[in-house]
Amino acid sequence: MLAPAATSKNPLESPACLQLEYVGVPPGKNARMVVAVRRDGQHQHLFSEGWPDRNREGRQIGLQRIQILFGKDRAFRVLENGQEVFASAPNAVSFDRASLYLQVSSRSNYPPREVFFNNVTVEAGR
Q1: Where are the domains positioned within the chain?
Q2: pLDDT-derived band at 78, boundaries 50, 70, 90
C-alpha cells in the first residue's frame, strides 16, 4: 500500500491510498491481484483480474516481482514479473509523495501461506 502520510495506525484506514494486493482463493493454493485506490475515504477497485465475472478460481502465484511506475499526470502502471498488467487513467491517485506499507492478513479459517517481502526498493522518477 502507498499512502500519502506516515502513520502508526492501520494504513488501510487512510483517507487516500493506492493498494495492490493478492487475494487468496480458497482452498489455499491460488490467488488473484487486486489494484484499488481510495480518495476522500471512498474505496474503488480498478483491477481484479476479471473477478467476479471470470477468473473466480484465481491463478497460482510464486515469486512475484512487482513494479509500480508513476507518470507526471498521477497515472500509474503495474508490472508483474516485467509484464504490464494494469495501467490507470490520469489523476488516478491524489498524492505526489507516499509512504510504503507492506502488510499480510488472513482469515482464521484459511490455511497458512508463506509470504516474504525482500529486495524492496524505491526509486525516484527518471
Answers
A1: 2-100
A2: very high
